[in-house]
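User: Structure with iron/sulfur cluster, tokens only please.
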Amino acid sequence: MAQVNDYNTRVKPNWCPGCGNFAVWTSLKQTLVDLNLEPHQVVVTYDIGCSGNGADKLNTYALKSLHGRTIPPAVGAKLANPDLTVISTGGDGGIMEEGVNHLMWAARSNYDITVFLHNNQRFALTTGQQTVTTKKGEPGKTAPRGIPEDSIVPAHVALISKASFVARGFGGDPAQLVTLMKSAIKHKGFSFLEIVQPCVTLNKINTFDWFRERIYKLEEKKDYDNSNWHKALEVSQDMEENIATGILYEDKHSIPYSDRLSHRKDSKTKLVDEVKAYSIDGYIEEFV
Ligand code: SF4
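Assistant:
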């Protein structure tokens, strides 16, 4: 059985001291151990960005994508080999800006993958420009007087895109993060976990203390019913005063994309078993 150390590589993290990525990295290793998964059973895809720099720091199969494209290779890996546990990670810049179309399509298709979105409200790797999750008017590198647009809430976008599992965690609460990661990975269908995490170097507004003063846990609200999509839509939106964490929504009867394909219902093989070598000589000859 794998231990936490089995998920380490020889590369030590070089994130800034106090970065929220440490909690996510540590929590994910603990989650995979708790789920009795071995490193060779897991694929993690990464975006460009500070979170993406974790690609060589976690001992699983890994793929580092182009900016905003962390979700498509994760979908491909899962469709090819459904036995794998497939996790796609990225920041608010990559997934909510360049790649938001991929998030919406993967959610509505209900591919059986898990997406972890690191939301620190900045393009951190490129030194702190605003993203779509930055509050309107907040100063930053791209716009010193603040951006004029309203911000977008990732969990809200996942919900309206029909994700069958949507949760929010906090980089300052690794114990809750492990619980949420386990639930997200075990969910059958598309699961989305937004992780609000301070960028301690470039975002001096949304700090650990700022979040701690505003965050509450849905699991402590006895009357919260996370099968109620409309209620989830309502509570997910507030990112300023009362920030909900926990499982916002789960469709426990969700049917993943692959299980909806009637023509593959009785298939004895996985797509990865059916890959064959094809000669393209004939096509090349047409062009020469
Ligand atoms: Fe983390 Fe921000 Fe440093 Fe990047 S710049 S490693 S997000 S604290």
